[in-house]
Design a protein that fits this description.
The chain has 142 residues and is α+β, with helices and mostly antiparallel strands. It is built from three helices and five strands; from the N terminus they run H-H-E-E-E-E-E-H.
């Protein structure tokens, strides 16, 4: 495998990945991508870590990794999100991330997934933009 970084427009690279898969995984990744875009029209598509589609808004929302048996949608801050319909079914033991493993033939609860995406956007948007200057320190000039 060539370790040289793949360069280009991230959206074009994701399009190419979907086409290259040529099976149910490409179809699933395309559906997930469309739902992310519908849930958050301002989402930014990125291409990271030697070929992982990433969707961001005020920070990473989720990734779309493809494996032989699953398309894994990992939410960067999934442990902090409410999941009333139980979409998360992987990476459940960690303190930060949560994932959904989509298998061939799985149906997507579009409303529930879009609600989860919107909750991830809201969580990212709510984070403070800067860390405090330091605990116990007086402001400069005092």
């Amino acid at each position: 495998m060539d370790d040289a970084p793949i360069q280009g427009n991230p959206s074009d690279l994701i399009d190419a990945r979907i086409r290259a898969l040529g099976d149910w995984r490409g179809t699933m990744l395309a559906r997930i991508r469309a739902l992310i875009r519908r849930a958050d029209p301002e989402v930014v598509e990125e291409w990271k870590w030697r070929g992982v589609p990433v969707w961001s808004h005020a920070g990473i929302l989720c990734t779309g990794e493809t494996y032989k048996e699953v398309v894994k949608m990992t939410f960067a801050k999934g442990a902090a999100l409410e999941d009333p319909t139980g979409l998360f079914n992987a990476s459940l033991d960690g303190n930060t991330r949560r994932a959904i493993d989509w298998r061939e033939g799985d149906e997507i609860d579009e409303a529930a997934l879009m609600a989860l995406i919107r909750a991830a956007v809201a969580l990212n948007a709510a984070k403070p933009s800067r860390k405090p200057a330091g605990k116990g320190k007086a402001p400069a000039g005092r």
